[in-house]
Design brief:
This protein is of the alpha/beta class and 352 residues long. The chain has helices spanning 2-16, 74-77, 80-88, 120-133, 184-198, 217-221, 234-246, 265-270, 287-294, 311-324, and strands at 37-45, 50-54, 98-103, 108-113, 136-140, 148-151, 162-165, 170-173, 205-209, 226-231, 253-257, 276-279, 303-308, 328-335, 345-351.
Length: 352
């Protein structure tokens, strides 16, 4: 963790010319069995004895001959060899390039990328596999939105895939190809720290930018008067609305579709004043957001918490907040979302 913290500090300084006043304690969690989301490549390689299911070898397109994996949950790792056998028995074994894994709190879902239709025998094999191992099976013939549920344990019609943010009493249903954090334990800790750092009070109006399914929006809504979640995907906005209603938070949340990569000061002003803002962008960062909040005359929230998966774009945006907008970088710290990797996630707090 010391290496990741130094990497964050160095990037903030060398890219953004900013330094946090103190560094926050790192967020750490389980080092093994943490990867609840994964994309496993599938390759039929007769020279290696049949079908391989696993991650790519480092710097290569070859699929590793994985027989066990300690970063996957045990329930998932135990399926590596059975999956080889399953795919090897399918008529489309050469047209099934990927299995996506989504482990929920009580359910494991597998999404099979199928480039050709399944035969009746293939379907029988899949049903037997799902029943034997107690997993949901989904088929993905095209893009991520094309997934269809094929098998549910017990014959249920609806997926039970979800995770729970226990500190806030919020359950988060999701589909197996939705973006969710791979490390559920770290995510729960991160959400709790972000909400506490934001300092939300009962009267507050809060914006959650790049809100996705509501990972931060719903916990914030348990505390604030109103949370406005903004996201570029209309599908995700509908899903976030559904999750808020299911959690009994529909009256305290509003969700809107907007391209935050093109946010202007005028569009930001049209949303009305916010007491607090939570920003959780993808790797591209939130440059337009930083510029809009730092524009001359902009109504500034009392605090911004920025959750980042890319230190370089965080540093770039921090430079806009601090060096152009006059904000103060109050705190920053690292989040060990991906143990045993060099990937650095982080969290930063800005005040005007």
């Amino acid at each position: 963790m010391a290496i990741k913290q130094r990497a964050l500090e160095d990037t903030l300084w060398h890219v953004g010319r900013v330094r946090p006043e103190p560094m926050l304690p790192p967020i750490v969690g389980p080092a093994y069995g943490y990867r609840y989301r994964a994309r496993l490549s599938v390759r039929h390689v007769p020279k290696k004895g049949g079908v391989l299911v696993g991650f790519h070898e480092r710097g290569s397109s070859y699929v590793a001959d994985m027989r066990e994996c300690h970063v996957l949950p045990p329930s998932v790792a135990a399926l590596l060899m059975p999956l080889r056998e399953l795919v090897g028995g399918l008529s489309i074994r050469d047209r099934l390039p990927q299995v996506e894994v989504a482990q929920g709190e009580t359910v494991l879902a597998l999404v099979l990328r199928v480039l050709e239709p399944l035969s009746d025998d293939d379907r029988a094999l899949l049903r037997a596999f799902g029943e034997r191992h107690g997993v949901e099976l989904w088929l993905q013939p095209k893009g991520p939105d094309s997934i269809e549920q094929f098998w549910t344990p017990g014959g249920g019609a609806a997926s039970a895939l979800h995770y729970t943010l226990q500190e806030f009493g919020v359950a988060m249903p999701f589909r197996p190809t939705d973006f969710t954090q791979v490390n559920h334990a770290i995510n729960a800790t991160l959400v709790g720290r972000a909400v506490r750092l934001l300092g939300v009070r009962a009267h507050a109006r809060v914006a959650a930018l790049f809100c996705g399914l509501g990972n931060f929006s719903l916990p914030l809504a348990t505390l604030a008067r109103e949370v406005v979640g903004i996201e570029g995907s209309a599908t995700l906005v509908r899903r976030a609305q559904d999750n808020a209603r299911a959690a009994g938070l529909g009256a305290r949340t509003a969700f809107r579709v907007a391209n935050l990569f093109e946010l202007t000061p005028q569009a930001w002003a049209a949303l009305g004043a916010f007491d607090r803002v939570l920003v959780d962008p993808p790797r591209e960062g939130a440059l337009a957001v930083a510029q809009a909040l730092s524009a001359p005359g902009a109504a500034r929230p009392r605090r911004v918490v920025y959750v980042s998966c890319n230190p370089a774009t965080l540093a770039r945006d921090a430079a806009v907040f601090v060096n152009e907008g006059g904000w103060r970088l109050r705190d920053a710290g690292v989040v060990n979302m991906f143990p045993h990797t060099s990937h650095v996630e982080s969290i930063a707090v800005f005040e005007p």
